[in-house]
Specification:
Blueprint lengths: L1 H20 L11 E6 L5 H16 L5 E6 L6 H13 L4 E4 L8 H9 L3 E5 L5 H6 L6 E3 L2 H13 L7 E6 L5 H17 L2 E7 L4 H14 L3 E6 L2 H13 L7 E3 L8 H6 L4 E4 L2 H17 L10 E3 L3 E4 L4
Parallel strand pairs: 1-2, 1-3, 3-4, 4-5, 5-11, 6-7, 6-8, 8-9
Antiparallel strand pairs: 10-12
Helix pairs in contact: 2-11, 6-7, 8-9
């Protein structure tokens, strides 16, 4: 009897070892592990995104495990690639990513998919051509950035006159959402008859946005407005307008509706922004991944896109 027990015990150990060597979960009932990889956590927008994801995970702790992280600054593409590789090594089941660069992150996304990890793209859309080149599809869960920026630009246009000079402070120029917001701003300015005298990258950051805004104000003393691709750069623009002694003379608009912009909307230093619901964006991505996991879908079977809301926010918004 003892020998039988010992043999059974050894067999169980051998099967467990085989399962682990094959990369199988130790327990069949293990919860799926979802990784959320964001851009700069120094940006309030992504802090809010992370908070929303953590709150969702806390409310659904029995359904999945969340691992969340973000890079130190908006242009640390190499750091984000390394972060995804580290997440992959933790045997994650799904990756929800806001890529720092629309093309540069595609190879590591391909590596994750090849490893059997489901990938969902949020915030900044991966480049369609780069995805096609790698023969992969990744669902984009997020708003129409061009339409959102046009909402903001249209509101600004009502406060300007045809022929007025305006400048656009763009995000990181290699990101799809930066490009789309610039196009939305340009759509609105063209429709209103405004003169876009420059488009320069502020790399999504306050200091760089401030530098670009200050340069535009020096180069064009008769500038009437600055359109910033996110609220962090709008904060920098507001400081530049103040330093130039032109508060109230140069309108500033942004995008994201972060908390830091709200007092500026209230007192007029910022005319308008767009709310794309940061706390919900990651949640929508996580829920898309969880649904696909529960339905045992493969990457190629996932939806191409899931559109989320973006709305205009002004002083009078309720």
């Amino acid at each position: 009897m003892k020998l039988n027990r010992r043999a059974l015990h050894q067999r169980a150990l051998a099967l467990t070892a085989l399962g682990l060597l094959a990369g199988a979960p130790a327990l069949a009932q293990d919860k799926p592990k979802v990784a959320l990889v964001m851009k700069s956590l120094a940006n309030e927008f992504f802090q809010t995104m992370e908070d929303g994801a953590k709150a969702h995970n806390k409310a659904n702790a029995a359904k999945y495990t969340l691992v969340a992280n973000g890079i130190k600054d908006e242009t640390d593409t190499a750091g984000q690639i390394k972060m995804v590789e580290q997440m992959m090594a933790q045997n994650i089941n799904a990756l929800v990513i806001a890529p720092a660069d629309s093309k540069a992150l595609v190879p590591v996304v391909k590596a994750a998919i090849d490893k059997g990890i489901l990938v969902v793209n949020i915030d900044n859309q991966l480049d369609a051509g780069a995805l096609k080149e790698k023969n992969i599809s990744v669902p984009f869960v997020g708003p129409d950035n061009r339409a959102g920026a046009k909402l903001v630009g249209d509101f600004l246009a009502k406060k300007l006159k045809s022929g007025d000079k305006v400048g656009i402070i763009e995000g990181v120029s290699t990101t799809f959402n930066a490009q789309q917001r610039t196009l939305g701003f340009q759509d609105a300015m063209k429709a209103g008859g405004m003169n876009v005298v420059g488009v320069q990258s502020g790399q999504w950051e306050i200091d760089k946005g401030n530098t670009v805004a200050a340069g535009m104000l020096r180069e064009h003393p008769d500038l009437k407005a600055l359109l910033a691709g996110n609220d962090s750069m709008a904060l920098g623009a507001v400081a530049a307008v103040k330093a130039a002694g032109k508060t109230g003379q140069v309108q500033v608009v942004g995008y994201d509706n972060i908390n830091a912009i709200k007092p500026m909307l209230a007192d007029g230093r910022v005319l308008a922004t767009a709310d794309q619901f940061a706390a919900k964006q990651a949640v929508f991505g996580i829920e898309t991944a969880l649904k696909a996991l529960s339905e045992k879908k493969k990457q190629a079977d996932m939806p191409a896109a899931v559109k989320t809301d973006v709305v205009l926010v002004t002083k009078d918004s309720k």
